[in-house]
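Q: May I have one protein plus its fold?
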Amino acid sequence: MTTSNQGTEQSHLSRAAFLRGVCLGVPATVAGLAAFGTPMRWAAAHSTSSGDSIVSIMDFGEAGAGNTLLDTLCLDQALGTGKHVYLPPGNYLINRTMTVDTDGQTVFSDLPIANERNAATLEWAGESTGPMIRVTAHKTSFHGLRLRPLRRDPDKPLPRGDRELVGIHLEKVSNTDDVDCEVSGCIFTFLDEAIHIVGRGLRAANNSFVVLNKGIVINWPDSGVEHKPEEKEQPLPHGLRSFYVHNNRVHSVPHFVLNTGPYAKDLTGLLLADNLLDIGEGLFSGSVNNSAITGNVVCHADRTVLRFDLCRNTSIIGNVLSGSDVSQPMFGILFKGSHCEDVVISGNVFSRMLGDGVVFDAAVQNYTTLTGNVFRKIGDNKPHIRGAIRFSQDAHDFSIVGNSFKTNNPMVDNVIRVHHSSIQISGFEVIGNVFERNRTLFGPAWLDGGYNNIQG
């Protein structure tokens, strides 16, 4: 152990002893609590392996003093022990990718939620595109860290998406589908992507995503999926699941959650909840099945907030999707691609859209419900073709009930617009909606497929 003086060593030992006690379930002494300051009880809750112990990056040298080679070596050696790694608040420069390859390993700092003044900060000083941290193990976790590129010129701001740099890249080399990672209380800034996961299982909570190109990117491995014959829920189409993204703050990120790749249509079990997005955000883009998007607040958006290539058995409930006087999204929700089936859209607020609030432009769209939503200030861009809700392809068996429409633009003459008279509408129940009386609720013309009850 390298320490500057005996007092520091004793304090560090007390802290390390306390942390080991927490993770092992040993009762903490009063002296241990006093030496540690704010107890890291949450570290124990996130610990997943048996016989846990903890090392500090400071156990391997005087890291955090501005020496890139030393910081990189110390962190690499700490991670190489396979033990949980503690980073005291400070700045640590790394010039190559750090690898986490031990199942159940945790990397954490003092604070359960990192802040700008007192955080363990990993700064990328490398010449390559990273990633900063590569995870090839199962059930790992990261708490209270800040990841960003090094600001090489103090007189120049960092560029957005520095050199396609990824903060944490999760991709296993065997049993490749089973990832199960947790990231909480971290800050990601000036990266291309904060988190990129290839496989199943991510909990991302209480993080800050600031000035990035992409927040969380979801993908699926091309090979290496291992499962027993009776484990039919592990391979596709059932394996790409279990994503819990909640209580995050997102600022100036064009794409927060992005589901990509050739297997994107199989994503299931996404809970995207209670996130706060501010300036320029798309909340989600890709495909979902059996999922819920709820309680999110998006303000000052300047792009389509929710874009679905496929959406099945999904609820979109209680979100606020809004532009502002200075920036407006084109659409609140866009269904574009193959399917929109068995979807509930309820209790949402759509405000200040350049285009339409909700657009249905999927090849197959049916059995969908829109209830209790509020639409206001819709359609400033090309208002003569806009509607609070617009149908651009055939649609069947829709329930549109109890919504409030206040488009504010007199040129948006059809509140619910059918884009072309050749579009077939059938099985529609449209009742109990409130709208401006100088508008037409549903129109202008469509091909009647029967079984429609359109009132208003």
